[in-house]
Task: structure prediction
Amino acid sequence: MALERAVGTSVSRLPVLYRLFRSFFRFLTNVWFREVSVVDDECPEDDAGVLFVTWHPNGLVDPMLMTARLEGQLTTLVHHRLFAFPAVGWLFRSAGVVPIGMTDRVGLNLGGNLATSTVLASTATHLANGGRVLMFPEEATHGRASVQNVRSGAARLLLSAYREAVASGRPFPHVVPVGLHYSDSSRFRERAAIVLDRPMTLPSLPEATTEADDRRWVLEVTQAIGVELQRANLAKTTWEERTLIWKGRSLVQAEKGRQQGERMERHDYATSLMAARRLRAGWEFMRRHDPSVADALAARCRSHFDDLESRSLTPYDVDARPETVTARGAARAMASWSWAVAWMFGLMTWGAMLGNYAPYKFQSLLERWTRRAGVDDTLQGSIKVLSSVVVFPMWWLSLSLAITWVLLDTSSPVYHAFSTHQILQYLTVLPPLGVAVVLMLFWPLSARAHMELYARLVRATRSVRRWVAWRDEANDWDDLVATQRELAEALVALGSGLVLPGDPDWQDPPSGRDDADVVQRRSAPVL
Result:
């Protein structure tokens, strides 16, 4: 991949412990998310260092996901509060995570302190020598729809790294903004995407090395990073606006598919994110240059989406509805659901229930306790992942040892019953250690297989419910379809008159400027 080539680091040369924990993080995130997309088409391919910067919407899940999915070895800087528990601190240090933000009474220039400046100095040397660093410039997790209070740490790190690169004759490190997206950050089995943007172009280093010049450079770069993170993460003022854009892009995708004669289907998360980016850029442009049109269209969309929500419907339900709703289609959906239910009663499902139901219920109780205690939603995912690290392996180990004893210990009644059976007696001569190891592997693997079966059942159940809704004439489908098609056509027509992200003639904005700043009107609208 481009990321590996960027730093000249082969995966095979990574430290064994780092690879181990990255694999562990990948397993956890694969369990937590049903889909993870990584888009890295524009990552540089030289041997310079790379600083990845992104926002921080989901606590510990953010560094876990980035470590699990980005190639090469990452040095990740996170706030020291995440290291409050010794076991967690050891786990993250082993995976290349470094605490930052610790206070000290000795003040340093550029607004730093002794502990933070020491970490930044060593990390800057690593970055200048071709290392790969991940940083969350907000320095705190949050649940808002927009990037919050970008701090100067990333810019200070770059200033030191740039100067060290000049002194050693190495190329300047690249700064790559990262879009980190979750369909719902606090819920199980949602979707996630990591979108690596093009490297930023930063101002020249200050010729003088005075504190005032350095402060001006740091301030300018910090502001540019803030804008880049807003753009890369599709930031909006409120979650209502963000949700409106997300639902609007589904109308645009469906309408374009109809106009091009494509079959109606759900898009992968990365494709949907590009559509949302286009809609956000066009909406912001129109709000600046023709606010009456933009606000009127937004009000119509909001009214339609509220109407759908009151009927427990989604825009996809309307767009996917066939022109003729037949009993045969409903029967096929029911047959698919029955087939999915039948598969749910196999060995893997029973193994998954035995190996995972008890710790899963414990996590449900833990979530109830934390919510009662007023813990913020942005930390719920972190709490669930951290509790999984401890509770699930402990339960698997206890269960494996217990079953091994029941099967193989001579004092067990099950052992005596099996030993007299013509076939089952062979189970009683298996090596205890081998049985325990196989069982330890079986519980997580059966859980993974069960989730795939469960996902199939969920899709089939949604399909059945959709057919039931389609056959319900109380929903006034003709009016719903006509309204949604009209809105979709208006959105597509509006976008076709603009040069938007993803178009062949689109030019990315300069670093520190938003997409809406470079959107242009077309002389002749195109699809």
